[in-house]
Amino acid sequence: MRFGANAIQLLACDYRGAPVGQDSITVTTSVADFPQRDHLRITELMYHPPAPGAAEIAAGFVDDDDF
Questions:
Q1: Coil, helix or strand at residue 12
Q2: Which of 15, 16, 18, 23 has its CA at 20 to 30 Å from residue 33's CA atom?
Q3: For the segment 19-29, what is each residue's pLDDT rounded down to a tens digit?
Q4: Coil, helix or strand at residue 15
């Protein structure tokens, strides 16, 4: 990512690797130097996470949208 606005393209694939959807977002950063970006990879996004477990409910997370 570079300083300022950065367009990010997202591609959703099914379990066979075939594209099933796409979207794009813009992420704006104010960090000028970010050496970790060379090694950062987003490999999975959990869009519909499971319901909270007992430990999560005990910690105050009662809605699966919190995750």
A1: strand
A2: 23
A3: 999 999 998 88
A4: coil
Closest CA to 32 of 66, 67, 60, 4: 4
Biggest alpha carbon–alpha carbon distance for the chain: 41
Contact 24, 7 (CB under 8 A): yes
3-state SS record for 22-60: EEEEEEEECCCCCHHHHCCCCCCCCCCCCCCCHHHHHCC
3-class SS at 13?
strand
In angstroms, the CA 45 to CA 7 distance is: 17
pTM: 0.41
Do residues 49 and 64 touch, judged by C-beta distance below 8 A? yes
